[in-house]
Amino acid sequence: MNGAMLWLMDTHEAPLRLFFALWPSARDARAIMDWAHDAHRCCGGRIMRQDTLHITLAFLGETSSGRASQLIEAAPCWPAPVGQVTLRRFGRFAGPRIVWAGPGRDDNDRTPWLDALHDSLWGRLQAMGWNRPASVFRPHVSLLRRAGQADLSALRRAPLAWTPEKCVLVASQPAQTGSYYKVLASMPIRGYAGY
Asked: Any idea what the CATH number is for the domain that residue 81 is in?
C-alpha cells in the first residue's frame, strides 16, 4: 500500500477536496512568481505561494475517501502527454477575485496538447462516474486571490514558456494562510506526439 493510501486511511473520514493539475518545476515556478509580483503591485490581494502554482486540469471538489482511493490506484496508469505552455496574458475571474496568467492571446487561441490532455483525463473520469463540467476549459495559473479592481491592461510581461514537470492528483487542505496541497498520485509524464 502506498504512502498516499496510508495517509488517506489514517487521517480522512471526511470528504477530500480533490483536483488534477500540472505542476511546474521549481525553476519555472520562480519565473511565474515574477508574473505574480507584477499582478500584486497592480491589484493587491493575496499572492499565491510559489509551491502552489499550477494549472488545474480537472476540479473534482468534495470526494469521499473511497472514491479518492479509486483515483489513487488508477492515476499512475494514465499517461499525461505534455508539451510546452506559454504564459502570454493576465486575466481575472471577477466573482472569486482571482488574477491569473494564461496561454494564448485570447480564449480562441488554444494550446492543442492541453486541450487533448484535459479531454483525455475527463474521458477517464467520466468512465469512473464523474460528471464533466459544462464550462469551457480555460487553462491558467492563479497568481492572486482577493485581488482589487485595478486595470490589468497595463500589465505586460514577455511570454514565459515552460513545460510541466508533474501531472498529479492533489488534495487541497484549507488554512488561514491559504490552501496546502498533498499530492496523492502522479500520472506518468511523456512528450506530446503532436510536436
From this structure: 3.90.1140.10
User: How far, in Å, are 6, 19, 94, 140, 177 from residue 69 at the CA level?
Assistant: 10, 14, 34, 27, 28
Please tell me the distance from the alpha carbon of residue 53 to that of residue 66, in angstroms, as a whole number.
28
Domains contained in the chain, number:
1
Per-residue pLDDT of the chain (195 residues; tens, 9 = 90+): 565 655 555 555 678 899 999 999 999 999 999 999 999 999 999 999 999 999 999 999 999 989 999 999 999 999 999 999 999 999 999 888 999 999 987 777 899 999 999 999 999 999 999 999 999 999 999 999 999 988 898 898 999 999 999 999 999 887 666 678 999 999 999 987 664
Whether residue 142 is contained in a domain is answered as yes
E runs forming strands in 122-165? 141-145, 160-162
* Cα distances (Å, whole numbers) of residue 185 to 15, 70, 71, 92, 165: 17, 11, 8, 30, 14
Q: Is position 146 within any domain? A: yes
C-alpha cell at 49: 505561494
Burial zone of 169 (CB within 10 Å; 0-12 exposed, 13-18 middle, 19+ buried): buried
Q: Would you say 84 and 25 are in contact if contact means Cβ atoms under 8 Å apart?
A: no
| 38/179 Cα distance (integer angstroms) | 22
Q: Which domain holds residue 91?
A: 16-189
